[in-house]
Amino acid sequence: MERARADLEAAEADVELKGQVLKRTRALLDSGVSTAEELERDAAALRRAEASRDSLRQEVLLKEEGSRKEDIAAAKAEYRRRRAVLEMARSQLDYTVI
How many CA atoms does the CB half-sphere of 26 hold within 13 Å? Predict the structure, then answer.
């Protein structure tokens, strides 16, 4: 969980940095020092960083919430099924004659 939070923090810092770079590129474009291509590149980098941050944020939220009730219920049902199979195997073993 700590790693996920650290990754999210790093992604948030990356978004901030990419935003600052884009802002500088816009200013340089307005003054004729930068190109539209550089502006598009920096804007795309910011969008990628935001998408990564949003994905990590969702991952942290899911980890904080824990397992869903349906997943827990399904796991319990699978446990009971396997337990029944084990009991059946033990019963058959009891009838085994060597």
Answer: 7
This prediction's pTM: 0.65
Cα 46 to Cα 53, 59, 68, 69: the distances in Å are: 10, 20, 33, 36
pLDDT at 47: 94
What mean pLDDT do residues 72-84 have? 89
Task: Say how many Å lie between the first and final Cα of the chain, rounded.
Answer: 53
10 Å CB burial of residue 8 (0-12, 13-18, 19+) is: buried
Among 25, 5, 6, which residue's Cα sits nearest to residue 17?
25
